[in-house]
Amino acid sequence: MTLLTGCGGGATDTANGGTGGATDEPGATTTPSRTATQGRIATPGRIATPGGTTTPAEAGTATDTGGETVVPVYYVTDTRAGLRLAREVREVTGDPVKGAVEAMVASPRDPDYATTWNPATTVLDVERDGETIVVDLSEDARTADTGSEGAALMVQQLVYTATGAAARDVPVQLLIEGEPAGELWGAVTWTGPVEAADPLDVRQLVQIDEPSDGARSVSPVAVSGDAAAFEANVPWRVLDATGAEVASGFTTTSEGQAFAPFAFTVSLAPGAYTIEVSEDDPSGGAGGVPMTDTRTLTVP
Q1: H/E element holding 299?
Q2: 3 state SS of 131
Q3: Using an 8 Å Cβ cutoff, are 261 and 226 in contact?
Q4: Rg of the chain taking only CA atoms, in angstroms
Q5: Taking Cα atoms as reference points, which of 157, 210, 162, 165 lies closest to residue 60?
Q6: Are strands 54-56 and 46-48 parallel, antiparallel or unpaired?
Q7: Could you report the per-residue pLDDT of 71-81, keeping only the tens digit for each?
Q8: Phi and psi dihedrals of 172, rounded to 5?
Q9: pLDDT in tens, 250-286
């Protein structure tokens, strides 16, 4: 997993040669970071809609749903490549970055996702300091039951969530009670701003954004998300409440081997279903179990 160096030093997991504003060894030397696009929902600052089109969704601009803002919130899931980031599209009120980080600390809606941030953590403040987002958390954030891999991904979980909600690819600085976080969780040290790592290194490679888990959706059901897919091919299938496959097919993204949006629709009779999208697997299983993402839903 790669953490990229933000300006000023701070979080590095050297497992894949990455650098970042936080280090896995206190006092480790940092190196200049490379810029990484996050592959946010469809494209930065935009939300995917059925049919593969996009509509503006600038963070901080209220939607028509009672002053709420739609933001991506990142959690952790287990994959063939180890722990990876997965996201949920959430509606928050007030400051979109603060609301997104609060949702990140709390439990995800999808049971396949998790967070190891201490749920007692309070978001004290969020500031935009020039080209840096500064997130100030309570002392509770220092407590987490995680190993070095999980700690490194916790750093990127916060970076992706904050920058995704702000719709800006800028570094993130973590403060604890107003001071630079320093050593965290016995595994990393976060002393300066940290940039988002390459999404191919830290994100699951297929992602459903809509429908949300547990949704009630009329038929035909519109499914959208993004994927870094082999030759842009994204297989999908639908299972009924008994686990039987009732529909299947494939869709394509606009670009292979890089995160790009996909969308498809499927007609379903009333009932409870699970929609699954997955990596295409030309290796026939030699590369491990393909990454998948699922959403449960009910068609009334």
Answers
A1: strand 292-299
A2: coil
A3: yes
A4: 19
A5: 165
A6: antiparallel
A7: 999 999 999 99
A8: -125, 130
A9: 999 999 889 999 999 999 999 999 999 999 987 777 7
